[in-house]
Each structure stands twice: as structure tokens, then as C-alpha cells.
Design goal:
Length: 568
């Protein structure tokens, strides 16, 4: 423990000192400095400093003395010691009331006590207290190093830090994802996810709002889903970039400055160094493992393996089984940008936040597969998740539906506005089917995205696949150029939806009245549009062959040429 005002007053030199205000607070007021100050105070008084004064600068002016005491209080000094008998003989009632209102300690001293003796005595006390602090700091540092050298798990390290800090702590990666979650209840984990989703943690920009160099590097995060405010400390790499963050939950009613004593700051600094060592080792292992597993799934999907035996050998080393039957599923979160703009506060980058969300989506994929007791293979290429999900006796659709329903349901709780788009291939029965099923799932995802469908099975896309293949033919390109391009140009120039008009007209089987009502158009306006379509395309809407040709061109154009930026 550090030095307190109460311990200072126990010295024999101060036996005649009298506490005027805040007597019950002296045991709680930490002392880090002592100085002699007269007017003006300005910024010469530091926090937790005992201020000695004769009030010589006040010149028997009560108002000036009141201002002087007010400035000392605002500097968050530990106490004000006033020598009576020369320049001031008693403490004005206004000063006493002000001190009581701000829980401030005022002590009066006999004039005969020399300030130099008081300063010497307190400095000796501070030196002794500092020695004790250093010993405790060294003990904590040694214990943390021993935990690292003995290769204890992160649970042991965090539990020790938590005990020494006397507060709940959290450790996350650079994107805010918690490590060692078994330390926390499911409710705490859910609240933490919401903090990350809303961009509350981790804070990306350091806010320098404290003049104390000991705690200037720590960020205070007040508006969170947690019950208490959090202090965020970066866990730095050698490069100076954070590889994670340590969070300390402030006890209820405690302020950052009062909670972060010198001892706790030392503990945090040692903890940050220790955790940095632990994370460097863990990250190297985990990143290698994740990369190897991800590369294997990627190579399997793209058909890079020369033989089944080679793939099985690699799979065994990574804990995967290839003898099961799987169905390939690919998917991505379509509206990440809109969610970020709506929910996340300033000071956070989209890329960092998006990586956190992708990590949570991976967790829900793994959770769903584990809950349904099925084997899975998983990787992610940029923003697209690639999953091979084991299926047994169920139909592909039945089992994949249960799996995706569980993922979507849990993601809706975390991100209510998220829109996951999924494409599913056919069942993998033979080794060569891994590549085939992946290609099918990608095609289904592409078609589903362009048709604004959340889930698309490959075997339900027969017509769309024909149209996609048809789109590549030169003759079809020429036909679309002659029919669709004039409509697009006219729409852009006149702001008239001719393509939508034809689609509605065809949907109502050429019934002009029904079409006009559905488009909220006057009958004559609709007829004008229909004649304009005929003149621009050179096709007659009364000719069934022409109608078929125009519809075919429109469907082919929409499925193959629509301007989409999905990452499939």
C-alpha cells in the first residue's frame, strides 16, 4: 500500500497538527508528493500532493484566500496544510464549507513547525513506501515470469492478475474477440459480443485525457453493455502495433484515477509484458494451425490434390475425415457496410470491425455443426465462407436447412440486420465430388445473390444455369445488344421504366387493364410505353415468338450481366 495522509499525521513532528475538515478521509487519501505553494496555484500542484502554505500571498484578503483554496481543491491535491499565526489566524467559514462540500482535507499547523522539516519527514516516508511498492511490484513480475516459464495456460495467468488487481479483467485479440472464454459466463460473453458489434470495444483511438504520465496510456470506455466502465490497455508487439487488449472492469462507483494506484499500474504493466510473450507464442502456433487447415480445405475445393491418398494423408494430420459424405456450402454477409455505418461509433475502422464479425460468424458455423454432431471442414476466402458439412441419412436439403437455420437464428440475435447469402452444391460421394460440389455451390451463390434469394440449392437452378451458359454465346450477346440496350438507354434518358413495364405486362399475360393497375398507370400511358418498347426493339408484343425472344433476352441479361460486386 502507498502512503496516506493519516500515516503522515502520525509522525511526532505533526503531533500538534489539527485536521479541520475531512478527518474521516485521511486514511483514504494517497500521498505521492509534497510541496510548498503560495499564490498563484496555476498548474504547480499535482494530484495526490500535500500542499504546505503560509497564505502569504493572500495579504489578509479572505476572498483571495478562498480562491487559493479552491484552486488547490481543483488540482486534486491530497490535503492542504496551513501554517497559522502570521498571515492567517483562522480558517474562514466559507473555506471550511467549500472543503466539506468537496470532501477535501484541510490541516492547520502551528507557526513554529518548519516546512523544511515536514518536507524531509514526508519524503523519507515516501521513500520507504516506494521501497515497499517496488518489492511488491518485483514479486508480481517474478510470479508472472514463473507462470510463463512453467508454461501455465492463459487461465492461470489471468486469474493471478485478476486476484492482484482486485477487479474483473478481460483479454481480447486485436479485433475484440475474447480469449479463454471459460472464465466468463455465457451472459457476460453475449454482452461482450454486443460491445464488439457496436464498436464499443476495442477503442481504436487513444484519448489522452489525463495529465498523469502513469495512466496516460490507458483508455477509459464508459458506454458499454457491461455493468461497469472498462479501462483498456494495449498488448503491444515488437513492431509497436497491438496484438490484443487487456481490459480492467472498474468497481462500481470507482473512478479511473482513484482506482489506478501506482501498485495497480505496475501490475498492469507487468501483466501486459507477460501476456505479450504468451500471445506471441500462442499466435504463432494458432496462426500456423489455422493456415494449414484453411489451405487444405481451399486446395480440396479447387481440386489441387493429385490423388485421394495424398488428400487423406494431409487430412489425417489436421484432424479431418474425408471418408464421410459432405455437402458444400458457401456464403457471405451481404450488408456488412450498412450495419457498420448504422451501429458503430466513430473512431473504428470498417476493416477491423469486419474481421471481428467474420470471426463471430465462423464461431456460429462451428457451434451449429458441433451441436448437430456433424463433421465439418471450414475456410474463408476473403469474405466468402466455404464449408463442407457432413450429411448422413437425411436429404441434403433437410440437413443443410437445419444447419443454416441454426446459424441464421443465432446471428440474428447478435446482428439483427445481417443478411447471410448461401449457395449449396450437391452431395459429395466420391473424392472428385469435393471440387464439383464447390463449383456447384459457387454457381448457386452467384445465382441466388442476383435473384435476391437468401438460400439457393444448385439442383434448383436448372433454368438459371442454362441462361448463364447462353449468355456467353456471341449470337446471344448480339441479340441482347439489339433488344435490351435500346431500352436501357431510353430509360436513362427519359427516366421511364420500360423493362419493368414489359415484365409486368408479361406477368399479367398481356392484360392491359391489370398491368396498368399494378403499375398505377393510366391505360393510355401504358399503351404508349408498350408501343415505345416495340419501336425500340423492333419486336411485336402481339407475336408470341417475339414475346418469348424478348423475355429470354431480359432473363439472360439479368442473370449474366447485372452489375453486382459480391465477392463470389
Amino acid at each position: 500500500m502507498g502512503l496516506t495522509v493519516e500515516e503522515v499525521l502520525r509522525e511526532e513532528l505533526l503531533i500538534d497538527a489539527k485536521v479541520v475538515t475531512g478527518k474521516l478521509l485521511t486514511s483514504k487519501k494517497d500521498v505521492q508528493w509534497i510541496s510548498v505553494i503560495e499564490l498563484p496555484v496555476e498548474n504547480f500542484v499535482r494530484k495526490n500532493e500535500i500542499v504546505l502554505t503560509t497564505a502569504i500571498g493572500c495579504k489578509n484578503d479572505p476572498d483571495l484566500f478562498i480562491e487559493f483554496v479552491k484552486d488547490v481543491i481543483e488540482s486534486k491535491a491530497a490535503a492542504l496544510m496551513i501554517a497559522l499565526g502570521r498571515f492567517i489566524y483562522d480558517i474562514p467559514k466559507e473555506v471550511i464549507d467549500m472543503a466539506k462540500q468537496h470532501d477535501f482535507v484541510i490541516i492547520v499547523l502551528p507557526w513554529e513547525i518548519r516546512f523544511a522539516n515536514i518536507v524531509e519527514t514526508v519524503m523519507l516516508q515516501l521513500t520507504d513506501a516506494g521501497s515497499e511498492e517496488r518489492k511488491r511490484s518485483e514479486r508480481v513480475q517474478q510470479k508472472l515470469l514463473n507462470l510463463i516459464l512453467a508454461e501455465h495456460d492463459l487461465n492461470h495467468i489471468l486469474s493471478f492478475i485478476q486476484e492482484e488487481m482486485e477487479a474483473t479483467i478481460y483479454l481480447s485479440d486485436r479485433y475484440g474477440n475474447l480469449f479463454d472464454r471459460e472464465l466468463y459466463t455465457e451472459q457476460v460473453q453475449e454482452r461482450w459480443k454486443q460491445n464488439v458489434v457496436n464498436g464499443k470495444v476495442p477503442r481504436q483511438q487513444t484519448v489522452q485525457n489525463n495529465n498523469d504520465p502513469l495512466i496516460q496510456k490507458f483508455d477509459l470506455i464508459e458506454e458499454t453493455q457491461s455493468e461497469h466502465a472498462l479501462v483498456q490497455i494495449p498488448i503491444l508487439q515488437v513492431s509497436g502495433e497491438p496484438q490484443g487488449y487487456l481490459f480492467v472492469s472498474l468497481p462500481e462507483g470507482e473512478e479511473k484515477e482513484s482506482f489506478l494506484t501506482t501498485n495497480r499500474v505496475h501490475i498492469i504493466e507487468h501483466a501486459a509484458t507477460t501476456i505479450a510473450l504468451w500471445l506471441s507464442k500462442r499466435n504463432a502456433i494458432e496462426e500456423t494451425k489455422i493456415r494449414l487447415r484453411s489451405d487444405f480445405v481451399d486446395e480440396l475445393a479447387k481440386g489441387y490434390f493429385q490423388s485421394y491418398e495424398e488428400a487423406v494423408s494431409r487430412a489425417g494430420l489436421l484432424g479431418y475425415e474425408l471418408h464421410n459424405e459432405y455437402v458444400c456450402i458457401v456464403g457471405f454477409a451481404e450488408n456488412m457496410g450498412r450495419i457498420f455505418e448504422r451501429r458503430v461509433q466513430e473512431g473504428h475502422t470498417f476493416e477491423s470491425w469486419k474481421k471481428s464479425m467474420h470471426r463471430y460468424i465462423e464461431e456460429e458455423i462451428i457451434y451449429a455443426a458441433t451441436t448437430l454432431e456433424r463433421q465439418w471442414l471450414l475456410t474463408r476466402n476473403e469474405e466468402v465462407f466455404l464449408i463442407y458439412l457432413q450429411v448422413e441419412h437425411q436429404t441434403d436439403h433437410e440437413y443443410a436447412t437445419d444447419f443454416l437455420d441454426m446459424i441464421d437464428r443465432r446471428l440474428q440475435h447478435l446482428l439483427p440486420d445481417i443478411e447471410m447469402i448461401w449457395g449449396l452444391g450437391k452431395r459429395v460421394k466420391h473424392f472428385s465430388d469435393y471440387h464439383v460440389s464447390y463449383q456447384q455451390a459457387r454457381t448457386a451463390l452467384k445465382i441466388g445473390y442476383r435473384k435476391e434469394k437468401r438460400r439457393t440449392w444448385y439442383d434448383q437452378t436448372g433454368l438459371d444455369r442454362i441462361l448463364l451458359n447462353l449468355y456467353e454465346f456471341d449470337d446471344m450477346q448480339e441479340m441482347m445488344k439489339n433488344t435490351i440496350t435500346p431500352l436501357i438507354k431510353y430509360e436513362a434518358e427519359r427516366q421511364m421504366d420500360l423493362i419493368g413495364t414489359f415484365t409486368a405486362f408479361h406477368q399479367y399475360r398481356g392484360n392491359v387493364s391489370q398491368t396498368a393497375r399494378s403499375l398505377h398507370l393510366h391505360r393510355q400511358s401504358l399503351l404508349y410505353r408498350l408501343r415505345k418498347i416495340e419501336s425500340l426493339t423492333g419486336l411485336s408484343l402481339n407475336n408470341s415468338d417475339h414475346l418469348f425472344l424478348l423475355e429470354l433476352c431480359l432473363k439472360t441479361w439479368k442473370i449474366g450481366n447485372e452489375d453486382m460486386d459480391a465477392p463470389y
